[in-house]
Amino acid sequence: MPDISFLLIAGTAVMVGAVVQSSVGLGLGLVAAPVVSFLDPTLMPGALLIVTAVLPVFTLAAEWRHIDWRGLAWALPGRLPGSVLGVWVVATLTPEMMGVAVGAMVLVAVVLSLRAVRVRITPGSLFGAGALSGLTGTATSIGGPPMALLYQHEEAARVRGTLAAFFLIGVMMSLALLAAGGQLGAHEIRGGLALVPFLIAGFLAGRPLRRVVDAGRMRTALLAVVTVSGLVLVSSSLL
Length: 239
Prior knowledge:
Probable membrane transporter protein, transport, membrane, globular, 80% helix, transmembrane, transmembrane helix
């Protein structure tokens, strides 16, 4: 069982991340991953992926009617090879190298979005976003930006519902592959389960923010969260 200081600090980060993700559709990994990595790197990415697998269940209970099932049918098959590559990255590359590369890629994508470069939601773009999400999510526990950028022009409820379904199934893939690769043990599982109560508190606290996001502010909120995730990945890797 993690000590009380870890639970208080990491739990607060998880709670804040859950507030963000319950309103925007992503953000848990962005807020919590750097904190958990700093406090106990041995828990990453397994412990945070366990927490990330729980939050979509609550989101789906409220948003399941808005899921883009056709989009998921193309994105999820891409998640599998991306997750396999992510397991290889965890086993062979340094976290610093991976963090800088992924963060830079995310920031370039945000700049292109701001310059009105819009990627259409097609089978090819969905498969590609799913693969990138599998890679970054498995290796760093931050897998939301590729899919979020693709869906940034959709309605808020559709974004939250689709991302929640994608995260739930995709994270289960990542956890299974990490376990098969010997990179998910009892230490990570206990750490992840200990943070779940903070996750639930954050989800409940974030529900009122949905009204603000739904009032035509989803794209702005998504781009802001994705930009911060890229900056966090780069800065935490370089420090």
